[in-house]
């Protein structure tokens, strides 16, 4: 929390309540996110000047704290109000010219030790949690800008991690990733349908000539004697042969296994 101790030391003599300490913490969070305090009150004053310190009279009204801030580039201004309600402080920030409004309610006793208001090492309780609360509740646009900046600085990381439509690289890998079958595996049927951009074979129709099993040497483009003339099947075309490949191609007459011997009625022959 670099800088907070120096701020606390500059105002410790004017701190008289736990609410003062909490307002000073919120002030420090705003300053370290690129803003400087202009002064008190709702309207600009002749005494306004940019400073990282709290202005004179910042805690003169314990029921309503009002502070104004401006960004380093002058494009954004904040009007900050903190209202005391019992043991809580209700913060409200108006961001101009965007007209964005944010608010946050903080239980003072959860983060400030009222018995040690003058001791910097003991007055704050759970400062890390308080920082997260202020950033998320009062300065949400600051957090979103930081996230955008991080994404711009790491465009490749964003593309590889956050893009749900990213297509995996088509470059061959020496070692297939777990869960991706070798495209030449016998059981790779359906792979091309599941990953149409992979450039690998294996659709829902199993081609016996490209399934990975040993080939019989049968070439349908050369024709099938008695069935198809040469050239009937284009070279390289997928072809479902008539019957078993290489079986019964040139057998004359009926197959002996088609009919039982005359007069023999044993179906289990």
Automatic annotation (TrEMBL):
Residues of the PI31 proteasome regulator C-terminal domain: 172-243
InterPro entries referenced in this protein's UniProt entry, alphabetically: PI31-like, PI31_Prot_C, PI31_Prot_N
Biased composition regions of type Basic and acidic residues, renumbered to the chain: 145-165
Gene Ontology CC entries for this record: endoplasmic reticulum; proteasome complex
Primary location: cytoplasm
Signal peptide from the UniProt entry: none
Key word Phosphoprotein present: yes
MF-aspect GO terms: endopeptidase inhibitor activity; proteasome binding
Keywords: Acetylation, Cytoplasm, Endoplasmic reticulum, Methylation, Phosphoprotein, Proteasome
Location of this chain's protein in the cell: Cytoplasm; Endoplasmic reticulum
Residues covered by region (Disordered): 145-183, 219-269
Pfam family, one: PI31_Prot_N
UniProt domain PI31 proteasome regulator N-terminal: residue ranges: 14-139
GO biological process terms held by the UniProt record: proteasome-mediated ubiquitin-dependent protein catabolic process
Function: Plays an important role in control of proteasome function. Inhibits the hydrolysis of protein and peptide substrates by the 20S proteasome. Also inhibits the activation of the proteasome by the proteasome regulatory proteins PA700 and PA28.
PANTHER family in alphabetical order: PROTEASOME INHIBITOR, PROTEASOME INHIBITOR PI31 SUBUNIT
Similarity remark: Belongs to the proteasome inhibitor PI31 family.
Name of this chain's protein: Proteasome inhibitor PI31 subunit
Organism: Paramormyrops kingsleyae
